[in-house]
Amino acid sequence: MTSPEVLTRRALNRALLERQLLLARATVDARQAVEHLVGLQTQVPGNHYTALWTRLAGFDPDDFSRRFAAREFVRIALQRSTIHTVTAADCPVLRPFFQPATDALFRAAFLRELGEVDHGRMTALARELVETAPMTFADLGTALAAEAPASPPKALGQAARSWLPLVQVPPRGLWRQSGAVRHTTAEHWLGTPLTPDAPGATAEAVVRRYLAAFGPASVKDAQNWSGLTGLRAAFTRLRDELAVFRDENGVELFDLRDAPRPGEDVPAPVRFLPEYDNVFLGHADRTRVISAEAKAMSWRGNYALPVWLADGFVRGTWRFDADRAGSAATLVLTPLDEPSAAERAGLEEEGAALLAFHHPGARHDLRWE
């Protein structure tokens, strides 16, 4: 039996960038991109705009915002029980699949406080309330506490996220808009039931999609991405149809046989990414895109900073300094180490485009820190 091919860190990096549409801007529609990526991590509401701008050629944020308002896309807790932007078609399929991650969060955070609550009754009441009018967690918790006065309102409101498939409704998530975080059920918002028995809701189907967007990857990587345990059985059932590799540490990796795996010497352009971008949350071992030093620079506990990639790896952080009138905006770049002349030129060119995207009509500047 021949030993599996060993993929270097740079080879894994280039494969990830290709799957994440970061080697070259794709010409697909935003819906196709979001479905291919199995959703976009959007814990920060506007992050889908930067994430799609950096991945898609000619991305139009106003068009995406209109489609978001028209319920073609929604933001809902999915992988790891964190907020993702997904298509209306994917939401009813993926939400039931990731429900165990949300259940685990409930048990860890609220079970002790709410163990004596009649969960079925609270779920039915919460559904009636948010389907009558979208509500914040605080308002929902207060309303539920009227029926369960011995329970903390905050815990009741937050627990509803585990009991029900709650979407955050606009204007949250719209281009250049904001608003209170109000929720209603996915079924009510989309006018369609959840479909836990759909063909696309099986572990094998989701693993295939994960590998298409994040592979090659290990079982542990997939479980880290999803927030679920027990995926090894799905990989075992799929093993005969998958390509098998190892990384430089000997970890077994799986991939779709016909998935693109560019060579490690393929050039990787400069890319600006929002905080919590997909590329950082798809693997247990994130060194294929971010070093320990870069992670220490760009993550503060659970809080992440926007970063840029140069030669495929995180090499610095960025932020905007803008005046309240919107007449001037500066892109501030903080490098981890000294960029090469070519990288500096690429950062300045791509940075100018990022400024034009987020601050059109303003006076632009770029500053190194």
Tell me what you see in this structure.
- Helix content is 40%, strand content 18%.
- It is α+β, with helices and mostly antiparallel strands and 369 residues long.
- It folds into two domains: 1-288, no CATH class; 290-368, no CATH class.
- The strands form four sheets. The chain has a five-stranded antiparallel sheet with strand order 2-4-3-5-6. A five-stranded mixed sheet has the order 9-12-13-14-15, sandwiched between helices. The protein has a three-stranded mixed sheet with strand order 1-7-8.
- Strand 12 (307-310) and strand 13 form a beta hairpin.
- Helix 9 packs across helix 10 (153-163).
- The protein is globular.
- The N and C termini lie far apart (53 Å).
- The model has no long low-confidence stretch (mean pLDDT 95).
Describe the secondary-structure layout.
Blueprint lengths: L4 E3 L1 H11 L10 H7 L3 E2 L5 H7 L7 H9 L3 E5 L5 E5 L3 H7 L1 H11 L1 H4 L4 H14 L4 H9 L7 H11 L2 E3 L14 E3 H5 L12 H12 L4 H8 L5 H7 L3 E6 L4 E5 L14 E3 L18 H7 E2 L2 E2 L2 E4 L2 E10 L5 E8 L5 H18 L4 E6 L1
Parallel strand pairs: 1-7, 14-15
Antiparallel strand pairs: 2-4, 3-4, 3-5, 5-6, 7-8, 9-12, 10-11, 12-13, 13-14
Helix pairs in contact: 6-10, 9-10
Read across the widest sheet, the strand sequence of neighbours is 2-4-3-5-6
Please tell me the total number of domains: 2
Number of strands: 15
Strand fraction:
15-25%
What spatial form do the alpha-carbon principal axes imply? globular
Rg, please? Answer: 21 Å
* Average predicted local confidence, pLDDT: 95
Helix/strand/pairing category? alpha+beta
Unreliable stretches, pLDDT < 50, 5 or more residues? none
How far is the first residue's CA from the last residue's CA? 53 Å
Q: What kind of sheet is the major sheet? A: 5 strands, antiparallel
